[in-house]
Amino acid sequence: MIDDNSELFKEKFRQAKDMIAAAGHPVVLTGAGISAESGVPTFRGEGGLWKQYNVFELATPEAFTRDPALVWEFYNWRRELLAKCRCNPAHLALVKMEQRFSPAFTLITQNVDGLHTQAGSRNILEIHGNLWQVRCLRCGRLDTVYGVFESIPPKCDQCGGMLRPNVVWFGEALDPQVLGAATAAAESCDLMLVIGTSAVVQPAASLAILAKKRGAGVIEINLEETDHTGRLDITLLGKAGEIVPGLMDGL
Ligand code: OAD
After folding, report:
1. Is the pLDDT reported for residue 102 higher than 70?
2. Active site residue 116
3. Predicted TM-score of the model (pTM)
């Protein structure tokens, strides 16, 4: 932990643990930072994907229409990388949290890496989709396919239509049902943990503020301060893989 020796951090950590223990129906919102210690690149910050690649060439519907093979090359590369990644202690601690509060527990994730599922979390809303899922542009069929595609762009087994990654690209709307469920959870929770997100992509970023406005206690865990910091109840600066298990210890 970055500041685990400071008295202030210890006090905030204790308060956060008390808030979690007293919660009735908590929600957790995660971003790329929770998977960073699993070796999954984040999007912003040092080494972030959008620092190295142009999002408009790789993660927009226009990019896919222009050059589906190039977009698929990028997703194949991410699939190859992700296949080597394993869930970390932060993902596992959230499984413990779900077991403690289930069924009154919702995990909202912006991550498409599937690591929460790999860890064993159950009630997950993947608001930006899932990298392992593909969707047929002709018949709409959803399928889960692990590994990389030998031939790109890949084709649908059923109708021969072109497949796309089932993720939300920039400029696209989120699945209204999934977003509706996430919004309802944020509105009605009494505690929210916001872990490893830069809080710049909407509508995900506004969910924490919504929870706060509706009276929930909101705790942020991040390596660094974000736009949320100061607007929430507690910010714990440090690695998710170290802080989150500590918060769930003894739950
Ligand atoms: P970002 O890459 O924008 O932010 C990652 C955050 O995690 C930063 O605030 C880091 O400080 C923090 N972080 C990094 N390592 C950490 C660690 N070990 N422990 C705790 N925090 C850590 O990722 P997101 O906020 O998830 O969208 O990005 C939101 C969306 O933008 C993504 O879902 C993706 C992207 O474009 C789509 O693909 C639609």
Report:
1. yes
2. no
3. 0.96
